[in-house]
Each structure stands twice: as C-alpha cells, then as structure tokens.
Amino acid sequence: MLWDDIRSVRRSVLIGGQAGQGVAKAAEVLGKILVKLGYYVFNYRDYPSLIRGGHNFNVVTFSGDRVFSHDERGYEVIVALDQRTVKTHLPEEKKDTYYIAPKGVNIPRGENIDTSEALKEGIPPIATNVILLGALAKYLGIPKKVALEVIRSELKGEFNEKAFLYGYERGEGSGGKIGRIPRRGLYFLTGNEAIGLGAIASGIDMYIAYPMTPATPVLHFLAARKKQYDFTVLQLENEIAVVNAALGASYAGAIVMVGTSGGGFALMSEALSLQGMSEVPLVVYLAQRTGPSTGVPTYTAQADLLFALHAGHGEFPRVVVAPGDPAEAFERTMEAFYLAYRYRVLSILLGDKHLGESHYTMEEGEFSPRVKPERFLVFPEGDYKSYEITEDGVTPRSVPGAIEAPVRATSYEHDEYGITTEEGPMIEKMMEKRLRKAETVREAVMELEPLSVYGDPEADRVIVSWGSTKGAILDALGHLSGWKFVKINYIKPFPSSLFLHEVEDARRVVIVENSSTGQIGKVIAMETGFITEDKVLRYDARPFTPEYILRRLRG
Fold this sequence. Notes:
The protein is of the alpha/beta class and 555 residues long.
C-alpha cells in the first residue's frame, strides 16, 4: 500500500484553496495529528497578501525519519478546496497523485466529497476544510480516535468534530494505514512561536510592536499569554514609537523586546543609534520578507543581512544572531536577551517568513539554552557613574529610583556621569570604551556556538549559509557525499577563526542564500578576507527546497 514504507520515506500532502477557506489551519491540524502518531512533520505555508480569494496552499511533508523542509513537487495527495488548486499544481503531481476535493471540483483521479448534506447536519460551509481533512485522514489510514483528540483540542465548536466525522465516514480510505510510532517528546511549532517562548523564558516584562508580516504572529502569541506569565504587550501607532518606548522601558529596568520586518526596521534606524550612545539594552526581532519597500510582503528573503549589520549612524557594538529552526530560535532568543542586558548592547534576532511561519517537528532534548538572562543590575550606595570607563568597556548598570544617585541616559556624547561633552579627549575615551565592549561581547559569543558544522567534518566541499536555509540544506546533505555544511549562527560578532578553520583546505565552497547577491559572502570577505564566487542563490521570494539545492550543486 502507498503508506506502508512511510517510516523511512518522505511523503507530502498539499492542501490548497482560497484565502479564508481554512487551508493553513487544516494543514496545521494534519501536522499535529501526524506528530501525535510519532512522525516528523514539516509544514510549509504559501499565501498571497489577501484576506479573501487568491491561491493559498500548504505542503505537509512527513516521515518516520527527520524532516526539516518541504517538497516542491511530487505530492502523494492533493486536497483541493477549489478548481484553481488543481490547475496550479497539476504539473507538480506524480502519475498516481490522489486528489480529494468537494463535489463540483474536477479532478483527474481520486474522490469528490459531496458536502451538500452537511448543512442538514448543522455543519456550516466554513467547515469544508475539516470535512476534507476527515476524508484525507480516512485515506491515509489515520486512526479516528487520535485524529479526534487533536480536532477537539485545536478547533473550537462542536460542528468541527461533526465535520471531521462527516468526511471520515464518506472517505474511501484506500491509501493504506499509518501506524503509530512509539516516540515521545516531539514538539510541532513555528519559529515565531519558539521566539515567543524564548522571550517568556528570558523573563520578558514587555513586548512592543506595530503589526508587520511576518513578525505579527509573535505579537499575537505573546498577547495570548500575557496574563498567564504576567507581562505586558503593547501595540503602538508606528515603529518609531515602538522602539523609543522600548528604550524608555528598558532604561527604567524592564526586560523588553520589539518585533518588526524590514520596513519597520528602517524606521527604527535612528533609535538604534540612540541605543549605541545611551547603552540602554535593546532586543529587536527582525523578521525578513521580500523587498525592497513593500516588496512581496507575505513571502521570504534573506536580503536584510547587511542592513541589520549596519543600520544606524556612527560606530557602536551590536549582536546579530540568526537561528535556523525553532529549537535554535528559542535558544538564540535567550542569548539575545542575555547579551543585550549583560553587556548593554543592541541584540538583533534575524529571522524571516520561512522560519517564522513554517511548522517544524523538534525533539524535546534539542531545547537546551546555554545562558539564563537577567537584568544584571547593581545598586551602589553614594556615587554612581552611568558610563564608568572600565577595562572591559562594560559599565555596571543601575536604573532610576533604585539608587540615590542619578542614573542618566543620553543621546549626546558624554563623560562618565552622562553629562554632555564636546571635548576631544573624552570623546576618544568613550569611543574606545564602547569598542572595548565590542571585544568583550566577542569573547562571550565564542562560548555560544557561533558556528555549527553538519555532515562529514573532513569533507573538502563545503556549503556555507545561515538562518532558515538550514532545513533544506540538511535534507539535501543526506543525498550528497563528500560535503559538509557550515552554518554561521552569529553574524556579528563574526566567528572568523572558526570559519577559516572549516574552509582552509576545501576545494569547493558554495554560498547558499535567499538573496540575489549572496550577502553572507560579502560579510565573510570583509571579516576574514576569504572570497568565493560559487553561489546558489534564490530570489523568487520562495524558500529553498532540497531539490532546488541538489539541482544547482549538481548542475
């Protein structure tokens, strides 16, 4: 039967329809059912910037072995909520792809579910996605009991259970049987959810944002949990207000994070320089999407890298860290808070739409934070220097009202007490203090696995990348012999010596990036002097898949 070898072979189900038909939710529920059965699942979401209409689809790829990315063609099942789904994805089908659709949608093979009787049973048309999910579960041989447990947990309203059973009972169920794999400790979550969890674990007091795809889900995730974990979520009128409010709250002692995408981050640039001068801790989540300008707002890219490294005027320390999956997103979020508050710097958590909105299956043991953030406050009696010049460049931090002495923060150059100065010698001393702090942060980052290596450590052919490309590269690596993958986790400060060690004897080094210019290659050249012109780039607003990488490497 079709599903008998699922424990070791990847299989994919595409669910497609219009915005508003519940495509994404159906895929998420399917993924959670499969994870509950012990399978590894990756759920990719593709949607236009429309509230209604257009063409949305999700690809749910799963196996008994680890799955880190989606397939771009060759789907075993296509669930089509409308005719456009069939037309769009017909060229991507296998010769035996099975279709499940409502009655009235013309399909080349498979089954049409008559939903006309559902209304008589109190099932509204909005639940058509759940009806088809029931038929899909029957076809895949998913145990009804397991599926219903997830349906009850994930979908509110008694009609959803009725809709699922309606589809399950009418489904043909001829695809085989998906058995349970005895496996515990699997989590099915998005990168955005993991970032939210990392912020909560870091003891966040306040999350401030203006809604901007694809960072908005973090705003929603945290808003739903603010009472449970006792923190504040604010939506302000624009990103300028957001970042300045965050600096004010941080100055007062709060642990704060802001979230945005490229356009909002551009508006924040002046305040980033304010952070550099004031040394008030700040954590920024930058969720990249396709630009420039509004660009393609619901699709992915990695083209804000150089912007994140250089946004703001003047010279000041910063951290730029780029997670590649939800486990990393959780850990690196905690590290961003730790570094920002321990060293009074700007921490930029650099993600994108693909990482933020895709669902990954992670194992319990993969969530292993290396640090525990805190406020890192001091409460001296008597004299206090808000910008005391220290050997490591880090001034012990206090907050207003916590001590008798004034605690100052200023946008002007200043002396140790925070009093404005234009005297050359003091300007030099303060600039040197901040630069020494950059070196102190570098030393700390070297203890946080700033670079990871996958595959054959002795291989002389190397893929170099960062961020959300991790999943597709790992899946492609399983089909490559004599290759290793060097993933750069911290882009600022850059792990120069570690990187050079991994590529010094390589006969081929290939940059993989979701951009048109390969920006990480420019960073590498600037930081190490190492130059490679061998690049696999994708800039059609879609993320990498294993097939895409393999075609380019072998071509």
